[in-house]
Records
---
Amino acid sequence: MAITLYELVGRDAARPFSPHCWKVRLALRHKGLDFQSATAGFTEIPGLEGGCSKIVPILRDGETLVAASFAIAEYLEETYPNRPSLFGGEGGRALSRFVESWSQRTIHPALARFAVLDIHDVLGEPDQAYFRESREKAFGTTLESFVADRADRVEPLLKSLEPLRAIVARQPFLGGDGPLFADYIVFGGFQWARVSSPFQFLPAEDPVALWFERCLALYDGEGAKVPAAA
Amino acid sequence: MAITLYELVGRDAARPFSPHCWKVRLALRHKGLDFQSATAGFTEIPGLEGGCSKIVPILRDGETLVAASFAIAEYLEETYPNRPSLFGGEGGRALSRFVESWSQRTIHPALARFAVLDIHDVLGEPDQAYFRESREKAFGTTLESFVADRADRVEPLLKSLEPLRAIVARQPFLGGDGPLFADYIVFGGFQWARVSSPFQFLPAEDPVALWFERCLALYDGEGAKVPAAA
């Protein structure tokens, strides 16, 4: 069966940047599954696959459609149980939700304050208007002012990464010697920033940066194939 | 084989308060293992079991001695594999380390600023002197000044609990429908504060408070048997 992953892009269809799509991209490679990528801008998402979802990633696997990264990971785990596990058992699946919850509430809001204007700038024109309006409404301020003090926000982010740093300083991945979906969850956030924004915030010698490099190198450099924003 | 759990207490041997000992107490109940408790004050720990460890918990299981809560959980999981799992598989074991890392760096430092003077006050005399000296050296200030502004620190703690809150608001435990060692890891911190300090900081309707109540009720109210500090 053919697998299609619908991913979010801006003007350059070769630069998918959604953190949640990156989680699934690595999950598919983890499972050793071939897939084709189909890309869409923000305003094209509601028209994908008959309007099945308001968000990407959407995965089509033969006749099956699944939306949202965690649900897709669970689908892949259940459907392809004989391939390398994304969760390492039921306990790993449950605690991956905690990693997601932490990542969503610690890393993502901070990275948004670094990258949101840069993300706007790489979008196609109809997406730019949609993105600016929806985000400025959510943030209660302009994109420009939302990122204006980003340099001052680096240190608090680096401090908030300590629970992750302490783990990846002593072992290669959150999963241990090898990565699990939990690694891809956190990787997705950093890759989102890397692909969409040239703003640098991770010191090269930070154990988190070294872990991120290990993630970028996985599966023949799947993550590294898209160059960092310049 | 007889199992002994060495736990930390103050003047009242019926009120073990170490977060790490509570993790193991619930882990033993989770596994359905009988055990006896042996108690020690801070300054008695180096003399336990021939000086095998500088920290409690220490577990003796027949001829085997294991120290430190996570190592004990791993030992129990390996030694009693046919009893309910503490990790739910290898992935769960790995990600429990992340939960521990988060709990140690988010919850514990905040709770120490609430409870450290109250902890001092429940200790026996030689322990009080050791505790004050070692902690004041570590904190760089007196115990009294370390907790002086604790009321102002409640709101930042409550905010930092959001990754946990989001999970336990939608399911009973971090482990899902039932608890895993990851739940006991976080429970230990809150139980430490509950047993040692009357300072209230969790609103009763907070999903974290409701989760904590569920943990207190586990195994015939193992955690609730020790009344809250008053």
---
Amino acid sequence: MSIFNYFRTKRAPAASATTAKERLQVIVAHQRGQRNQPDYLPRMQQEILEVIRKYVPVDQEDVQVQVDDSDNCSVLELNVTLPG
Amino acid sequence: MSIFNYFRTKRAPAASATTAKERLQVIVAHQRGQRNQPDYLPRMQQEILEVIRKYVPVDQEDVQVQVDDSDNCSVLELNVTLPG
């Protein structure tokens, strides 16, 4: 299944008469070749957020951050609800 | 299914004796509230790549870019194969 299908299935229910909330989701997945490679996702996360803030005003409480770490793969997920 | 499961299922086959390639995948999904909202993903894409370049040396040919646009959702996928 390609990532695009993932987002198609995940989409919010059909936009009702009132406009649906605008959302932005950023995912960074880092698959390391060896185990001891540095994990720079936490620092990269903050800088990606600053890039997003150049385009849309985002308050910290509008950003949900999830990080999943396993043996050689880290996945960072930022969910941003944008001002409607 | 959460995005983390997506990446777990998608992972490369078990790393053989030689080290697996290091990869970075960045996905930005923008779900617009209304149809005519501006789509800033193309410009954001370049800036996110520049953030990544601060952490790892990345040549343009090591970056695959895929964009999927439908009625109110745009998904940008950057696949970066990092120097092994």
